[in-house]
Amino acid sequence: MNTNEKRADDVPVERSSDVDTGSIEVQEERKQPDTAARKAASKLRIFLWGHPPESKAERRLLMKIDFFVMSFLMLMYWSNYLNRTNLTSAYVSGMKEELHFRGNQFNQVNTVFTVGYIIGQIPNNLALQVVPARIWLPSMALIWAGLSMCLAAAKNPGQIMAIRFFQALAEASTFSGSHYLLGSWYKEEELGKRSGIFASSAQLGSLFSGVLQGSIYRSMEGYRGLRAFQWLFLLDGFIALPIALYGFLCFPDAPQTTHAWFLTDAERKLAVTRLPPRPHTKLEWNLVRRVLGRWHWYAFSALFAWSSMLESVGINGLFQLWIASEDSSIQHRNYYPLALTAVAIVSTIVCAHVTDFYRCRWPVNFVMASGCAISAILILIWNIPFGARFFAFALAGVGYAGQGSNFAWANDVTRDDEQERAMVLASMNLFSNVINSWWSLVFYRATDAPRFRKGMIALICVAVATVIITLATRHLDMRDRKRRGEYANSDERESASPCHHVTEAQARRGNTNEEDDTISHLHPQ
Length: 525
Known about the structure:
By secondary structure, the chain is mainly alpha-helical. The protein has helices spanning 2-49, 56-98, 105-127, 133-151, 157-171, 175-185, 188-219, 228-250, 265-273, 287-292, 295-307, 312-315, 318-326, 330-335, 338-358, 363-381, 386-395, 402-413, 418-443, 453-483, 490-495, 504-509, 517-520. It has a single domain (60-256, 289-484), classed as Growth Hormone, Chain: A (Up-down Bundle).
């Protein structure tokens, strides 16, 4: 009896054990794919947006900064570029014939705009040291919006030139001023990807302008007695108005001066303390001596001034002019060149994320130089299939990839002096436009379309110059960091590879663990 009871008891126990073990194994098998998927998703999120802050308070603050700071700056720059690039769309969509453009008058309009843009660079950036950004930047947006609408009433190229000059003075506030504000809000490891996403909003403006003009030509040509290109100017102006209003109401200025309604007192303090401490500097007369006494101004001004000439195919509308010579369709003239814009957007965002992931800025310039050199060589050959020529013009969009990364690099290097940082960022854009003011007249005259032989040779030379200036700037940056002790010793520096990925643990520790010395002395370049 006892034996039977024991057997009866034993059997269920054994079966129960079998069932439990199998159940656990099945559950573990089911969990493994989920865990792998979560890990992959986590790695992708870190690559795309960086390591999340360790504290809940800082994560909440960063989310607010990303929403309000990034959204306004991107919308404003998108509108800025929408108004800047609409001239090319208008030119190939009837404005040339309607306003009787002759010879190189289109180039002259672009040159006048560039001169106004140059004059407005440094005054606009220094104005942000005195006038709150939430007042200054939206005010400039209102001005260029009104002037864009005035373009619809222009009767000849001379009036277009006058309006574009004053429009440029207002639009000069946006690009370098926004990079200055991004550098004020974000940590070094957060800055590159945000700068790249911000820079890509310009290309989204260019993309939208082409789509908008093509749509307007189909649906609004002749509506209420206006040509399609006139409606483009009016709509681009109207688009800027709500963006300016959003800035007046929601942009939070800089961390040290913000009174934003959506930030608590604790978050305002955290916005300042979470950033590395910076020496207190003032807007004084010795600013010029401080700026000119360091290599930063010379190197970064030269770097961006020349590397931005890799954007010449896009800036001067060469793709549109080539398509116009091949195809009489207005829609095709506006839609086909969007391939270059798409390449510019993708390359800018991808390169910016990679530079933050590996904490290394300078290689982006090699990517730009290589891509543009290949593009120029293919266009110089010319007698290639239509698809290959299309690819060559589209590939030139990679020349925009350094906009975010080079400004992030300059922001990193000049963090210790707010006024120098403002001057360096403004000067980068200023000298870029100084060169472009005569560059297009010499190498990209409208009468040289569609082959632009001189321009393609110049593009190859600029690619070589970009590589040389990049290497020189990298050498100076590394020299200074080594002097400050950011490398343990020269042997370590020589043995280390130029770019490394910083792990989440190292990023959160601040790279202070002695066991991680090889990583701890890495720096963004």
